[in-house]
Amino acid sequence: MVKINWTRQSIEDIHSIRAYYIEPSTKFTEELTDKIIEKAAVLENFPNMGRIVPEIGNAFIRELIFQNYRIISESRIDIIAVHNGLRPLSKDSIFN
Fold first, then answer.
1. pLDDT (tens digit, 9 = 90+) per residue, 72-92?
2. pTM to 2 decimals?
3. Which CATH architecture has domain 5-86?
4. Which of 32, 72, 81 is nearest to 49 (CA)?
């Protein structure tokens, strides 16, 4: 079992998601962010799960897809970002 480390960037991403959806529905916001965290928790037992992030092309940086979000992690399981899959992804949007 691997310990998941949420980076500052990924925590800020979760807070941004919460801030975006909180006004229309607090319940939806809580359920969405809880489900993102639950999806990422699978990496504790399966750290190499997910596909290689095509924009980065590094075998150690992978992603899980959950709804419109890409949960991007490194093989030691640092959640480095939670990115809206409807927006373009670049190295700068992950490593800023």
1. 998 776 788 899 999 898 888
2. 0.79
3. 2-Layer Sandwich (3.30)
4. 72
